[in-house]
Design goal:
Blueprint lengths: L2 E11 L2 E12 L3 E5 L6 H9 L4 E10 L2 E2 L5 H6 L2 E4 L6 E5 H12 L6 H14 L10 E2 L5 H15 L3 E5 L7 H18 L2 E5 L13 E6 L2 E6 L1 H10 L2 H5 L1
Parallel strand pairs: 3-10, 3-11, 6-9, 9-10
Antiparallel strand pairs: 1-2, 1-4, 4-5, 7-8, 11-12
Helix pairs in contact: 4-5, 5-6
The structure holds adenosine-5'-triphosphate (ATP).
């Protein structure tokens, strides 16, 4: 059993304090949903956890199994089992998707396997997220549709087998079949590998497929409400005002 703990996290971006004391505790096998109005700081939290240099942690700590990982390199965080599926993945020109995925597979699962065997595994994973194998021959995210990008992020998660996955709006721009595929993978990894999740979302839609243990509402850089799935339902029906007022 692993625990990711965020303690009193304050984060500054371009000289402005965006997060003002976030506390969160996520255990293996748990799914936490993070909701909140536009600009409340959800993506800032995900990038700060992963160590993006623009998102400066000015106070507070990130602890992984009581080890302080606040200031370690992103690469080290990934090695320790943290993963982020970006809200808007950027194109990496000149790097083929297959090259990236094979390198990731090799790093995490590949030891002792032949190159052809590894490539076949990568192709199988690609098929399982419902995208065309031809994308493997293109630059990473180059000309990918919105839904293809989201599915490719989940493909990377499948290969990297993280302990803690932060999914930043995995449901945006994804069609109904894609949503089902993504939700099934989230559930499968939770059940088989005890993966824990922080899922950032605007809609209850994904929570109809994935059962969140806790739902948090972020507003102006602070978590103003925490509850169960009924909180997401309330937001869906009545908007944020009903939650923020209370
Ligand atoms: N790199 C940046 N430079 C300047 N301001 C930033 C930067 N990143 C975030 N911000 C600001 O920080 C605030 C929080 O942004 P963030 O993207 O974390 O919100 P969010 O809750 O994820 O919003 P959304 O639901 O619209 O995706 C916003 O006011 C945003 O303009």
């Amino acid at each position: 059993m692993s625990t990711l703990k965020i303690e009193d996290l304050h984060v500054e971006v371009e000289g402005k304090e965006v997060l003002k004391g976030i506390n969160l505790e996520i255990h293996s096998g748990e799914i936490h949903a993070l909701m909140g109005p536009n600009g409340s700081g959800k993506t800032t939290l995900s990038l700060a956890i992963m160590g993006h240099p623009k998102y400066k942690i000015t106070k507070g700590k990130i602890l992984l199994d009581n080890e302080d990982i606040t200031n370690i390199d992103t690469d080290e965080k990934v090695k320790k089992g943290l993963f982020l599926a970006f809200q808007n993945p950027i194109e990496i020109g000149g790097v083929k998707l297959s090259t990236l995925l094979v390198a990731e597979y090799n790093r995490v699962q590949g030891s002792g396997q032949m190159a052809t065997e590894i490539f076949q595994k990568v192709k199988d994973f690609t098929k399982s997220v419902g995208i065309s194998e031809t994308l493997l021959n293109r630059g990473v995210f180059e000309g990918f549709s919105g839904g293809e990008k989201k599915r490719t992020e989940i493909l990377q998660m499948l290969i990297l087998k993280p302990k803690f996955a932060i999914l930043d709006e995995p449901d945006s721009g994804v069609d109904v079949d894609g949503l089902r595929i993504i939700s099934d993978i989230v559930d499968k990894m939770k059940n088989e590998m005890n993966t824990a999740y922080l899922i950032i979302t605007h809609y209850r839609r994904i929570l109809d497929y994935v059962n969140a243990d806790k739902v948090h509402v972020l507003y102006r850089g602070k978590i103003v409400a925490t509850g169960d799935m009924s909180l997401a339902k309330l937001i869906d029906e009545k908007g944020y005002e009903s939650v923020i007022k209370n």
